[in-house]
């Protein structure tokens, strides 16, 4: 029941006590929980980069100034999809490694990485701490790849700032169940459910939101996708087309 309550009470924090230091025991508890996440065939196709060095964190904020918590939180983790480990295995067995011929290996690694990330979020909150997932690290992939010395077959998915929150946040409402949960087959639903959610979010009135929920994503997906992702994946041998 405690774990269920933690998940139901999830919220994102962006303001942290800069004087609070995560203990090594707390950090290891979070990392162990993260590493225990389910993965395809127990492949564990991810790695976790623990960023403690202040200089590196300052450089990350310089690349992504809208997320100063990457510096001010107690620790910043970067979760990467990692197919380098299986490439080493292939080399050991002198086997082919044609992962660039299809997207399934990448999807598998991204899924494993996301599951590990979510376990870290839950463990963080179970310890009475807060976190914020940072997907925008994918906007500066080339620079981050060099900064972190990432080899081929390794792709940054998201960061995670962890610390002691200084500003209380409310639990954010989610989409209506009928728009998300389907039984047996995918079921179409009326657009009014999205309008209902727009109204819910307007009442929630989160200060950082300047657009209606639906308009935000209409604008986002109406723009050209982040081409840095494609270029980075090709450069790092994830796919060739």
TrEMBL record:
The keyword Hydrolase does not apply. It comes from the Bacteria. Residues 8-164 form the Nitroreductase domain. GO terms for molecular function: oxidoreductase activity. Keywords: Flavoprotein, FMN, NADP, Oxidoreductase. It holds the Pfam family Nitroreductase. Coiled coil: none annotated. Belongs to the flavin oxidoreductase frp family. This is Nitroreductase family protein. It comes from Enterococcus dongliensis.
């Amino acid at each position: 029941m405690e774990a269920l309550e933690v998940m139901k009470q999830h919220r994102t924090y962006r303001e942290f006590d800069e004087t609070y230091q995560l203990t090594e025991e707390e950090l290891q508890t979070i990392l162990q929980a993260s590493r225990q996440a389910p993965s395809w065939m127990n492949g564990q196709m991810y790695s976790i980069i623990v960023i403690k060095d202040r200089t590196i964190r300052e450089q990350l904020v310089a690349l992504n100034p809208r997320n100063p918590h990457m510096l001010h939180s107690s620790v910043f983790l970067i979760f990467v999809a990692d197919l380098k480990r299986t490439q080493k295995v292939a080399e050991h067995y002198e086997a082919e490694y044609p992962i660039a011929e299809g997207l399934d290996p990448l999807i598998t690694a991204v899924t494993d990485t996301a599951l590990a990330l979510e376990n870290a979020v839950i463990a963080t909150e179970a310890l009475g701490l807060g976190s914020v997932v940072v997907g925008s690290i994918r906007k500066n992939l080339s620079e981050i790849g060099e900064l972190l010395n990432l080899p081929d077959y390794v792709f940054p998915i998201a960061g995670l700032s962890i610390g002691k929150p200084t500003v209380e946040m409310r639990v954010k409402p989610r989409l209506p169940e009928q728009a998300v949960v389907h039984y047996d087959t995918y079921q179409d639903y009326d657009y009014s459910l999205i309008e209902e959610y727009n109204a819910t979010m307007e009442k929630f009135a989160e200060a950082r939101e300047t657009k209606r929920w639906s308009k935000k994503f209409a604008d986002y997906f109406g723009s050209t996708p982040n081409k840095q992702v494609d270029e980075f994946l090709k450069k790092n041998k994830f796919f060739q087309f």
